[in-house]
Write a structure and sequence with these properties.
The complex is a heterodimer of chains A (770) and B (154). With 770 residues, chain A is an alpha+beta fold. Chain A has 21 helices and 30 strands. In chain A, the strands form 9 sheets. In chain A, strands 11-12-9-19-16-17-18 form a 7-stranded mixed β-sheet. In chain A, strands 14-22-21-20-15 form a 5-stranded mixed β-sheet, with helices on both faces. In chain A, a hairpin with a 5-residue loop joins strand 20 and strand 21. In chain A, 58% of the residues are buried. Chain B is of the alpha+beta class and 154 residues long. Chain B contains 6 helices and 5 strands; from the N terminus they run E-E-H-E-E-H-E-H-H-H-H. Chain B has a 5-stranded mixed β-sheet with strand order 2-1-5-3-4, with helices on one face. The longest helix of chain B is centred in the C-terminal third of the chain and has 18 residues. Chain B is globular and about 40 Å long. Classes of the chains: A alpha+beta (770), B alpha+beta (154). Chains A and B meet through helix 8, helix 10 and helix 20 of A and helix 1, helix 3, helix 4, helix 5 and helix 6 of B.
């Protein structure tokens, strides 16, 4: 363990490389964190998109695909499947350019190896965005190599042959050779240079942008054969659960394992390594129970007596913390974007409106809790893990075991939900440490639901204060917004006390509205639990506040919400994010990815038209609107509610309009947006983790509620905006559907009842006043 | 202890109070049945015991002995189970897929009892099964499709 102590010690800290890597993993460059300055736009070497990610991209067909003697094409997927459809979508791109017959394509999951495959971090809604072009090049290069092999076989110019549907045709003579026949010869030919590739035109696509492709894992999932991280099984396997420090930074003072050790099936009880000053992805301090079944380990764990030293966070109380955030939000804070003169215009405005919004901590609650399997044979460790960050998992397991990374193999399983939680591989490290303690025997560690809700890397908690001045015409003349929330950078740099670039750039400073006088401030906040990234991250509080406030302003001005929002967005124009002080821009080039208000307007117009905006409803019934730009995509939602006399909210229908540029697999884009609606409703209605004495107060799904079948909208209508052409760069898909849902729901509650919801979750706030 | 699982008799040495879930997953290596909450709150571990959908995470294995246990690995052997699995694939119901074994087992019990369920029947039968990815609308559609299909093939 000495290697770990060195690497993670408070004095030594993370290496700069590792720090940068972690920041990359969480979705962007920070401008300043923990005294570490990272150059931004001024840096001539600033890289964008996939090239800005560690290990960039690889487009070598010999890495990503093989063709067997029987003609089966195997395509390697190097990103993690967590429901977003990457194991279907990515191979689809390769197969299309390859002119492969999809019914003869197999998919193989890559282990962690970024030098071979390119960056594998599956987060930030960027797998398809970053790998569309490399995967196209892969398929096209292989197709041209097959054509070359056929031309050689027939001794004809390559210009006379054409690959189509798993074979190559000599057009003049009608001769054909199958891919199976050509594969060996083709593999020996040089891989064509990227500049020499003949890529398909969009009209030539057979699978990309089309529907009707079943899920690669569909059959395995419905028959119980699919392998998640919780599923690897060996005859001599041991099963572990861990009692972890209930408080972040806490340690085990002493423990008594007498009763637990004597419980049926128990093989070993041991203390986990002490925690470190930086949370990073380090396992928490605790006591592990290893047994012959998970059930036996869970039962024995209840018999442990542990005395904890809670450490510095033992007094964390989420109610008191909310009050402190509110106090901060009412005072001036660090200015992060400013234009015009907000103060004087606010003073002279015909009318001014202010409001304060609160969103608590939210837990990911993936249906498959964190878990992992490891075994060690002759100094080499194999890990099976549902990880969104395969390479980070590999490197961190190696460090904790004190062995070189090349001696660690990470098998990436299916993920039973990810949502950002499984980017942090503490669970895989635990499995490896426990296998080491069991002399290399295979060990599966499973987090119970209680463990998951007590020790998550939680979504931040935030207070958003807004004040606007309206002119006599009802238009916004000045806008002040303070966002105060502990940063997710605190797990890497505990002293971070402001939102970092990636958080500010999530719907806060990059708000593309046409407002002459604007100031955005970010007062300081400290973290007292592990903060992580939760699907769509800081867009959730920022969108909730801004989109709720716009509705409030429209109501105050006596105008229609849609018309008011469109007026606020202003004319169709392309805004350079740098001019909004957003130097992050999701890691993408500001020239390639400006914020396009025309596209934002268009999703608002589309969704309101499709949803029948402006219909008259009976009392207790209404529609709410919200729109939000995130992950380079444009989303707008109209939520319809029906609220009964008891204040019970039913959501009969949700419409979503979405523009992510070109669509690789529209069917999975629809499913992601359907899911985003449900997840957005969950967090708006019920999502809250609270703390007392440093301890999470929610144990299981009875206390941490999520939307169920009877509460889900029966009718979710997704309206995808077609891209003008394939030159439009791709936006993200997995996350941007979430942010507009909570504000659209709350705006609908207002339309139906006149009640404003400024604090999430809604719970019973919609109850009518009696 | 002898268990009747998917029409096979299986002998297993287990503590009588160990939940059936862990007997299936950890002692027998039948990992299609999933762990989600351990308190019968999420339905991921749903199996059929004598045709009834039960949460195996809270069912002591001794109580399942001598009864007919059906898991996701075996439900496809019945026309109803096969119809559900087919509908699930046709509609591309799953996202991450983790909860879907439990969803299908609950749906199988529902259709066994009510071959043509109403929306309210579906709500009642399926609200114990959480899907965090949010596939509920597609699950509803798939159940209705399987119900229709089952009706046609009878």
């Amino acid at each position: 363990m000495s290697a770990v102590a060195d690497e993670f010690s408070p004095s030594g800290g993370l290496s700069r490389r590792q720090f940068l890597r972690q920041l990359q993993a969480m979705g962007g460059l920070l401008l300043v964190a923990d005294g570490l300055h990272i150059a931004k736009a001024a840096d001539a070497a600033r890289k964008y998109g996939a090239e800005g990610m560690e290990h960039g991209t690889v487009d070598n067909p010999l890495v990503f695909l093989t063709i067997a003697d029987d003609g089966w094409v195997t395509i390697v997927v190097h990103r993690s499947e967590m429901g977003q459809g990457v194991r279907t979508g990515m191979p689809l791109i390769v197969a299309d350019e390859l002119e492969a017959d999809w019914s003869r394509v197999r998919v193989q999951q890559a282990p962690a190896d970024e030098e071979k495959y390119g960056n594998q971090d599956t987060d930030g809604s960027r797998s398809t965005r970053h790998f569309l072009d490399p995967m196209r090049r892969c398929g096209a290069a292989a197709r041209m190599m097959l054509e070359g092999a056929a031309a050689l076989s027939w001794n004809v110019p390559v210009s006379e042959v054409r690959a189509a549907n798993h074979e190559v045709l000599h057009q003049k003579t009608g001769r054909k050779l199958s891919y199976a026949t050509l594969a060996k010869r083709a593999a020996k030919l040089p891989v064509p240079a990227a500049t020499a590739l003949r890529l398909k035109t969009a009209e030539e696509f057979r699978y990309v942008g089309k529907g009707g492709v079943p899920l690669v894992d569909g059959h395995d999932i419905v028959t119980g054969r699919a392998q998640y991280g919780i599923d690897p099984w060996f005859k001599d396997m041991s099963f572990a659960v861990i009692a972890r420090s209930p408080v972040l930074g806490g340690t085990v003072k002493q423990f008594d394992a007498t009763a637990a050790s004597a419980a049926p099936g128990v093989q070993k009880v041991l203390q986990m390594p002490a925690p470190v000053a930086k949370a990073t992805f380090h396992p928490l301090a605790g006591v592990a129970v290893i047994a012959n079944s998970t059930g036996a380990a869970i039962a024995a764990r209840k018999l442990l007596t542990i005395e904890w030293d809670d450490g510095a966070n033992g007094s964390y109380d989420s109610d008191a913390y909310r009050t402190s955030l509110q106090e901060s939000a009412r005072k001036p804070g660090k200015v992060v974007r400013e234009s015009g003169n907000v103060d004087s215009v606010l003073q002279s405005a015909a009318k001014s409106i202010e409001a304060e919004y609160y969103i608590p901590h939210i837990a990911h609650a993936t249906m498959e809790p964190p878990c992992g399997v490891a075994r060690i044979i002759a100094g080499k460790c194999e890990v099976w893990a549902p990880t969104q960050a395969p390479q980070v998992t590999r490197e961190d397991v190696a460090k904790h075991l004190g062995i070189p990374a090349e001696n660690v193999t990470v098998h990436v399983t299916l993920l039973g939900g990810g949502f950002g939680r499984k980017s942090k591989p503490d669970f895989a490290i635990e499995a490896a440490l426990l296998s080491q303690a069991m002399d290399g025997r295979p060990v599966k560690v499973t987090w119970t639901r209680e463990d998951d809700l007590h020790h998550d890397f939680l979504h931040t908690v935030s207070v958003e204060y807004l004040k606007a001045g309206l002119g006599a015409d009802g238009k916004v003349s000045a806008w002040l917004h303070r966002s105060v929330a502990p940063s997710l950078a605190t797990i890497f740099a505990p002293n971070t006390d402001h939102e970092v670039g990636a958080e500010l750039g999530m719907g806060f400073i990059n708000m593309p509205y046409d407002i002459p006088n604007l100031r955005q401030e970010n007062p300081a906040a400290a973290a007292h639990c592990r903060i992580g990234w939760f699907r769509s991250v800081s867009n959730i509080p920022h969108a909730f506040a801004v989109q709720s406030f716009v509705s409030e302003l429209a109501a105050s001005a006596g105008k229609d919400h849609r018309d008011y929002l469109l007026e606020l967005i202003g004319a169709a124009r392309k805004i350079d994010p740098d001019t909004m002080q957003d130097h992050w821009n999701h890691g993408e080039s500001p020239q390639r990815y400006p914020v396009d208000t025309g596209r934002l307007r268009h999703v608002v117009e589309t969704v309101t038209q499709e949803a029948g905006w402006g219909k008259k409803f009976a009392p207790g019934h209404g529609q709410g609107l919200a729109a939000h730009y995130s992950f380079l995509s444009y989303a707008a939602a109209v939520v319809e509610v029906d609220i009964d006399e008891q204040g019970r909210i039913v959501v009969p229908r949700v419409d979503v309009a979405f523009d992510c540029g070109p669509q690789v697999n529209p069917e999975r884009i629809r499913s992601q947006l359907e899911g985003a609606v449900i997840m957005g409703l969950s967090l708006a209605m019920f999502g809250e983790i609270t703390f007392k004495r440093g301890r999470s107060q929610q144990d299981n799904f009875h206390q941490y509620r999520v939307t169920r079948m009877n509460e889900a909208p029966a009718d979710i209508r997704v309206h995808l905006v077609p891209a003008q052409d394939w030159n439009v760069p791709l936006g993200g898909v997995g996350e941007p559907g979430v942010p507009p849902i909570a504000p659209a729901l709350c705006n609908a509650v207002f339309a139906a009842t006149g009640k404003r919801i400024r604090r999430l979750p809604i719970k019973d706030q919609a109850k009518r006043a009696t | 202890m002898e268990l009747q699982i998917n029409d096979q008799t299986i002998t297993v040495a287990a503590e009588p109070e160990l939940p059936l879930l862990w007997v299936l997953r950890d002692l027998l290596g039948m990992t299609g049945t999933k762990f989600g909450c351990g308190m019968a709150l999420c339905g991921a571990c749903t199996v059929l015991v004598d045709g009834q959908a039960l949460r195996s995470c809270v069912l002591p294995v001794a109580q399942a002995a001598g009864k007919k246990i059906t898991t996701i690995e075996g439900v496809g052997a019945t026309p109803l189970g096969a119809a559900l699995q087919g509908a699930w694939q046709q509609i591309n119901v799953p996202q991450c897929g983790y909860c879907q074994a439990g969803q299908i087992m609950s749906a199988a019990a529902l259709l066994q009892a009510k071959p043509n369920p109403s929306d309210a029947d579906i709500d009642t039968a399926m609200s114990g099964n959480i899907c965090r990815c949010g596939t509920y609308p597609r699950i509803r559609t798939a159940i209705k499709q399987a119900a229709n299909h089952g009706g046609q093939t009878k």
